[in-house]
Amino acid sequence: MGPADEIRGEAAVALAADDAAQVRTPERQLTLVPGELETAPSRLPADLRVSVVIPTLNEARNLPHVFARLPEGLHEVIVVDGRSTDDTIAVAQRLHPEVRILRQERKGKGAALALGFSACTGDVVVMIDADQSTDPAEIPQFVAAVADGADFAKGSRFLPGGGSADITPLRRLGNRCLNLVVNVLYGTKYTDLCYGFNAFHRSVLDSLVVDCPGFEVETLMNIRVAKLGLRVAEVPSFEASRLHGESNLRPVRDGLRVLRVVVRERFRSERGPLPAAVAPLAAAEAAAATAVEVS
Ligand SMILES: Nc1nc2c(ncn2[C@@H]2O[C@H](COP(=O)(O)OP(=O)(O)O)[C@@H](O)[C@H]2O)c(=O)[nH]1
Ligand SMILES: [Mg+2]
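A: This is the predicted complex of the input protein with guanosine-5'-diphosphate.
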């Protein structure tokens, strides 16, 4: 039993946004009571098709651990590979013969996720990392939050029941400061800004444009769903240490990219047509998704 199993019984789904933030007040809150593990969903609901998107960059050694903890009954697993030089793709295909593999044309985690999202066919989309830091066994809790009425369920390492063995002091500080700035600028009540475990109804992609290349992607999504007035729930999550290899994130460079997004989005309209520069990009990503699929 890992740390995530231990905290699962204490988990609570906290709704993270309110009217003041141009965000509708959620009507319901799902609370999982300590000791009542049977109320913490460990299985997926039968009536929702769940797509899991996993960006990979040289994660061959980690994938066995990730795939082993995927819940049963997933609609599809989509691996978006960023030109790994190890045998990530072969390992994924061996572990999960039905896996859909997309080869990424552009660099970066954000571009990989955008590509994966555009290829999803399920009702609910879940994004997780491939380095074993996000625990796929928590997926049912995220899906339950969506089934319970959230449009967007964002993971939080800083809610009671969550935690991290992976985050460094510098990243913790940066995340906390940026999170505070977002809450002030956008009126949100987020407790975690830059975390890679999230789930949302696929229909959210009708209005949510994901058009950034790199590690600023979670911040961009968190800000845009708030600006769109979507119902956002935070789900406590435990982030384990990366098992093999090293993080691709560079805290200062990527922290500044996140800050730029935080400021830029404050002045960008979320409604109305997509900016001309973005619309063709979204279409190109969708086209690329079919063009590069590995069978
Ligand atoms: N496809 C793709 N995946 C990436 C890229 N950069 C990082 N990833 C994946 O994104 C996830 C998070 O990356 P990681 O390096 O662990 O960053 P950290 O968790 O923020 O320290 C992992 O699954 C990586 O393999 C990229 O350029 N392309
Ligand atoms: Mg990681």
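The longest helix spans residues 169-186. Residues 55-57, 59, 80-82, 104, 107-109, 112, 129-131, 133, 196, 215, 242, 247-249 surround guanosine-5'-diphosphate (ligand 1) (CB under 6 Å).
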